[in-house]
Automatic annotation (TrEMBL):
The protein's role, per its UniProt record: Responsible for the formation of the pyrimidine heterocycle in the thiamine biosynthesis pathway. Catalyzes the formation of hydroxymethylpyrimidine phosphate (HMP-P) from histidine and pyridoxal phosphate (PLP). The protein uses PLP and the active site histidine to form HMP-P, generating an inactive enzyme. The enzyme can only undergo a single turnover, which suggests it is a suicide enzyme.
Signal peptide: 1-28
Highest classification ranks of the organism: Bacteria, Bacillati, Bacillota, Negativicutes, Acetonemataceae
Family: Belongs to the NMT1/THI5 family.
Pathway linked to the protein: Cofactor biosynthesis; thiamine diphosphate biosynthesis
Protein name per UniProt: Thiamine pyrimidine synthase
Domain (SsuA/THI5-like): residue spans on this chain: 43-253
Length: 333
C-alpha cells in the first residue's frame, strides 16, 4: 500500500523540525584538578572527600581527583614536578620547602589548633615535663620534630636519648621508650584501643606550653595562581564548604570517609576514624571562643611558627606573610 499524501507531508515536517532543532549540549565537564594528601586516606581529610562525594567541587566547576600520600611518597615533589595541582601539608613543611626554592602559597589554612602531644608512662613521668629529664623518648623525624625539641629546650628537659619515631607507637607500648610523640586525633586514641587506660599515662599538650602551631593547610605554587586564579579560588571555596558540611553532618562525613578508607585497604577501624573526625573538626571549624577564622592563616600564628623554626635552625629566612598567603585568602571568603 502506498502512503497517502497527508502522511508524507507530516513526516517531512517532523524531519525538518528535527534537523533544525539544536542538539542538546553535553553535560559540561568540570576542570580537572588533582589534590594530593600528605598521608593515607583517613578522617583527617574528610572535608575533601565530602566536597567530592556531595558534588560541591562539581558545583564550583571542578572535577577533583584526590590522591593519597603515605610512606615513601612526597606530595611536594609531585607538586614541584607539575603532577598535581594542590597538596595538603603542614605549615612547617611548606615553609621549609619554600625556602628551598619551591614557590608555595598557602591557599587555605585548614587545621588552626595544634594537636601535638607528648605522652609518657605515668609511673615514669608523673605530671610535669621536667619528669622527662634523663628519660628515653621517641619523636617523629623531619619538620614534626622541631616543636618537640623547642618545647623540651624551653622546659629545661635533657632526655637521656631521643629515638626516631616512625609510623606506630609500638616502641612506647613495649616500654622501649618512656615517652612518645602523638597527635590527639590519632595516636592518643590508638593507645586507648591498644589497652592503655588514661590513668596509666601522662599527657602534655604542646599548645598549653606555647608550642602549638597551625598544622594542615592547602598549598599550590605561585605559577598555578598566575595561570588560573579563578580555579584556585573555586578550589579553596569548595574545600572549605566541604569541611563545613562535614561539621554539620558528621555521621554522613564518616560514612563517606570509610568508603575511601575501605577502598584503599587502610589498616584502621570505624571507631578510630570516628574519634579522628570528631577531634580534627574542633581544630578546623572554630567554635564561639576560638580565635581563628575557618581557612585563614593568622598573621600572628605565622610569625610565631617562623620564629620557632628559626630558633631551631630549620629556617634562615622567611617570605613575607603577604607573599606566603597570596591574594587568594584575602579575596575569597
Amino acid at each position: 500500500m502506498r502512503p497517502n499524501k497527508t502522511f508524507l507531508i507530516v513526516l517531512a515536517a517532523v524531519l525538518a523540525a528535527a534537523l533544525l532543532s539544536p542538539t542538546p549540549p553535553a553535560a559540561a565537564a568540570g576542570k580537572p584538578v588533582e589534590l594530593m594528601l600528605q598521608w593515607t586516606h583517613q578522617a583527617q581529610f574528610a572535608g575533601y572527600y565530602v566536597a567530592a562525594a556531595k558534588g560541591i567541587y562539581k558545583a564550583h566547576g571542578l572535577d577533583v581527583r584526590i590522591i593519597a600520600g603515605g610512606p615513601g611518597l612526597d606530595p611536594m615533589n609531585e607538586l614541584a614536578d607539575g603532577n598535581v595541582d594542590f597538596v595538603s601539608a603542614w605549615l612547617s613543611t611548606a615553609l621549609i620547602r619554600r625556602e628551598e626554592g619551591l614557590p608555595l602559597v598557602n591557599v587555605a589554612q585548614i587545621v588552626n589548633r595544634s594537636n601535638l602531644l607528648m605522652i609518657s608512662w605515668k609511673d615514669w613521668a608523673g605530671g610535669s615535663p621536667r619528669d622527662l629529664d634523663g628519660r628515653r623518648i621517641s619523636v617523629w623525624e623531619g619538620d614534626f620534630r622541631a616543636p618537640y625539641l623547642a618545647w623540651l629546650q624551653a622546659e629545661g628537659v635533657e632526655p637521656a636519648a631521643i629515638y626516631p619515631q616512625y609510623y606506630s607507637v609500638n616502641l612506647f607500648l613495649r616500654r622501649g621508650v618512656d615517652a612518645c610523640s602523638a597527635m590527639y586525633y590519632n595516636e592518643y586514641h590508638m593507645l586507648y584501643q591498644a589497652g592503655v587506660n588514661e590513668d596509666e599515662r601522662s599527657v602534655f599538650f604542646l599548645k598549653d606550653y606555647g608550642f602549638g602551631f597551625p598544622e594542615d593547610g592547602l598549598y599550590c605554587t605561585e605559577n598555578t595562581i598566575r595561570l588560573d586564579r579563578e580555579m584556585v579560588a573555586a578550589f579553596r571555596a569548595a574545600s572549605l564548604e566541604g569541611w563545613r558540611y562535614a561539621a554539620e553532618h558528621p555521621d554522613e562525613a564518616l560514612d563517606i570517609t570509610m568508603e575511601y578508607v575501605t577502598a584503599a585497604n587502610v589498616a584502621t577501624n570505624r571507631p578510630h576514624m570516628k574519634w579522628m573526625l570528631e577531634k580534627i573538626l574542633t581544630s578546623i571549624v572554630p567554635g564561639g571562643k576560638d580565635p581563628w577564622t575557618l581557612g585563614k592563616l593568622a598573621r600572628d600564628d605565622y610569625e610565631k611558627t617562623v620564629q620557632m623554626m628559626r630558633g631551631q635552625k630549620m629556617l634562615h629566612s622567611q617570605p613575607t606573610y603577604e607573599a606566603f598567603t597570596g591574594e587568594v585568602t584575602a579575596r575569597v571568603p
